[in-house]
Design goal:
The complex is a heterodimer of chains A (about 110) and B (about 450).
Chain A (H helix, E strand, L loop, with lengths): L11 E2 L7 E6 L2 E6 L4 H6 L6 E2 L6 E2 L12 E4 L4 E3 L10 E3 L3 H8 L1
Parallel strand pairs in A: 2-8
Antiparallel strand pairs in A: 2-3, 4-5, 6-7, 6-8
Chain B lengths: L5 E4 L3 H12 L5 E3 L21 H5 L3 H14 L4 E3 L2 E7 L2 E6 L2 E6 L2 E4 L3 E3 L12 E3 H11 L1 E2 L3 E7 L1 H13 L2 E7 L4 H10 L3 H16 L3 E3 L3 E8 L3 E8 L5 E5 L2 E6 L1 E3 L2 H5 L4 E4 L4 E4 L12 E3 L8 H19 L7 H24 L5 H5 L5 E3 L4 E2 H9 L6 H8 L12 H12 L3 H4 L13 H7 L3
Parallel strand pairs in B: 1-2, 1-7, 2-3, 7-21, 9-17, 11-12, 11-17, 12-13
Antiparallel strand pairs in B: 4-5, 5-6, 8-18, 14-15, 15-16, 19-20, 22-23
The chains are: A alpha+beta (about 110), B alpha/beta (about 450).
């Protein structure tokens, strides 16, 4: 196991892969996802994290997946906040995993 | 008949059975749920376009899941169904909800809250790394999205769900590196008399453990968690535990599913000023209800895992009983005495089983006291055990809400759902007082973060 670099993807698909392919953009990079994915699954099938903690140097990838912990918030390129575990992924979504909150924390 | 305004929060097993009982008697309740579909967490439906059959999705509980979904489908046009709607605050006879950024106030004569539960978490070093998920999350990713939370998964915690989800992962083709249980196996023997209250559930549990061992999964009991290894940028890379003899064991993994039973989602009951009681067996505060589901607040009923952690079957019985009780209290229809007696008996059995589970798989509260000072307790705002202890020892916070005010543990985006129980244990130990004296993190509205613009536009009057 590579101990330095983040994994290319965090989640592993175990089935249900016959669904229609869609495309979402992560920090300007286009990736494939599947119709019916939550935004969280769409993102973590192609990257290792969703956001940076505002209070430490740790990246975060969600925690409860049931809308209780709010760890999986991301922003779209318009700045709208999305709870990715309960937001369906849609074709053409453009998501940022480095949001402004991190900068605010560093200024403090 | 008919005109009473009854609102149900939650469309899981308790909420659906409550709605069914009301509809049978000609009442059209409003049913509110934050999800898109009915089923709750336990019988969560997969999205449209997914094709796995019930047997594959729900295993031994497939028939119950299907029955509950069918019941809901039959009810759907005889209730006022509000999906994707968050119930975020309660005032006397008024439930505040928000849907799609728009707020609304639902007046009610009676409210039946079936708010369910979330995972109960005990922090450990490294649990704030990417790749560490709650046990419930591990199950949801599989059940609702056909995904594993990582390539190599370690299951850590205690309780029947630990073995169930690990077995589901194995069956789905995921690689399970280990199942690590903090409870010693001897406790299960001692709990047998109580667990025998539900022999078929007990038998299913034994089969699960056997199936894991057959699959070659490393199953350890009585372990002491040491550390989830990894790095801030990379996330989880391993898990270390100590066995009963104090020997250390290390497992490579890129994901950890962590969970210690459940905790009730009781914030709405708290906001409505329902009385709570300290449940010594589970070491958590739960809303007080009578045997039929009446809370201490008139017109407010509580059912399911949000008030008594007795699982899906118990929730179905409790939901129905609460609805029948509510109808009788409103003078709409007197309850069928025989049915009430039967439902109460079913719940008594569930309660015996619940106590058996707590004996077999106890919440490892001493682990909280033993956490190193550097361990993150509050994942949201990265507050450590040491900072919390300082709030107690130097600032005199011996009550959890005071500790929260002083060091922000429980103040973050999850509102204390995942750190609250462990934080209370740490405060109790640091202050040298019983846990019940520490109190509980007060539920506050909004029970989940919501946008101020929702309230401005929707106009909460």
């Amino acid at each position: 196991m590579d101990s330095k670099n983040p994994p290319e993807r965090r989640f592993v698909r175990l089935g249900e892969t016959e669904r229609r392919a869609i495309q979402v953009w992560i920090d300007g990079r286009p990736v494939h996802a599947l119709e019916g994915d939550t935004l969280l699954v769409a993102l973590l099938s192609s990257t290792s994290h969703l956001r940076h903690s505002e209070f430490s140097d740790v990246v975060r990838s969600g925690f409860c997946l049931m809308g209780a912990c709010q760890d999986c918030w991301v922003r779209d390129e318009q700045g709208q906040r999305l709870r990715s575990c309960s937001t369906p992924a849609r074709d053409g979504m453009r998501i940022l995993t480095s949001a402004q909150e991190v900068e605010w924390a560093r200024l403090a | 008949m008919g005109q009473a305004r009854i609102v149900i929060v939650g469309a899981g097993p308790a909420g659906v059975r409550a709605a069914q009982a009301l509809v049978e008697r000609g009442v059209r309740p409003v049913v509110v749920d934050e999800s898109r579909r009915d089923g709750g967490q336990i019988y969560r439906r997969q999205p449209d376009g997914f094709k796995r059959p019930y047997a594959k999705l729900y295993g031994t509980e497939a028939d119950k899941a299907q029955a509950l979904h069918r019941s809901f489908e039959q009810l759907q046009h005889r209730i006022e169904w509000r999906a994707e709607t968050l119930a975020w605050h309660i005032e006397p006879h008024a439930l505040h909800v928000v849907r799609n950024g728009e707020a609304e106030v639902l007046p009610f004569d009676a409210l039946i809250v079936c708010s369910g539960a979330t995972d109960r978490l005990m922090p450990m070093p490294g649990w704030d790394l990417a790749g560490c998920y709650s046990l419930g999350a591990a199950q949801i990713s599989l059940k609702s999205q056909a995904c594993a939370i990582g390539r190599r998964v370690v299951f850590m915690g205690t309780g029947p769900l630990l073995y169930l989800v690990a077995a589901q992962y194995v069956a789905a083709g995921a690689q399970v590196e280990a199942v690590l249980d903090t409870s010693a196996s001897v406790l299960r023997l001692r709990a047998l008399p109580r667990l025998a209250a539900r022999p078929s559930v007990l038998l299913n549990g034994l089969r699960l453990v056997a199936s894991l061992r057959r699959a070659g999964v490393h199953v350890m009991t009585g372990v002491t968690p040491v550390e989830i290894g990894g790095s801030p940028q990379r996330g989880v890379t391993g898990m270390r535990v100590r066995d009963r003899r104090g020997r250390e064991h290390a497992f490579e993994c890129d994901a950890v599913a962590l969970g210690y039973h459940l905790r009730s989602e009781a914030q709405l009951a708290d906001i409505a000023r329902c009385e709570f009681r300290f449940d010594a067996a589970s070491r958590q505060w739960l809303p007080r209800v009578d045997q039929d589901g009446r809370s201490s607040v008139k017109g407010m009923y509580l059912a399911g895992d949000g008030v008594r952690l007795s699982g899906a079957d118990g929730a179905e019985a409790a939901g129905r009983l609460a609805a029948l009780t509510c109808l009788a209290d409103l003078g709409i229809e007197r309850s069928d005495r025989a049915e009430v007696v039967q439902l109460r008996a079913a719940l008594d059995k569930m309660e015996r089983f619940r106590l058996g589970l707590l004996q077999a798989f106890p919440w490892p509260h001493r682990a909280a006291a033993a956490l190193p000072d550097s361990t993150v307790v509050c994942r949201c705002e990265v507050v450590t055990a040491g900072e919390l202890r300082t709030a107690v020892s130097e600032l005199g916070a011996c009550e959890i809400n005071r500790a929260k005010a002083l060091c922000r543990v429980g103040m973050g985006r999850c509102q204390g759902r995942y750190c609250g129980h462990a934080a209370a244990e740490i405060v109790a130990h640091a202050a040298g007082i019983p846990l019940e004296q520490v109190g509980r993190i007060r539920g506050q509205g909004p029970v989940k973060p919501l946008s101020v613009s929702a309230l401005a536009v929707g106009g909460a009057e």
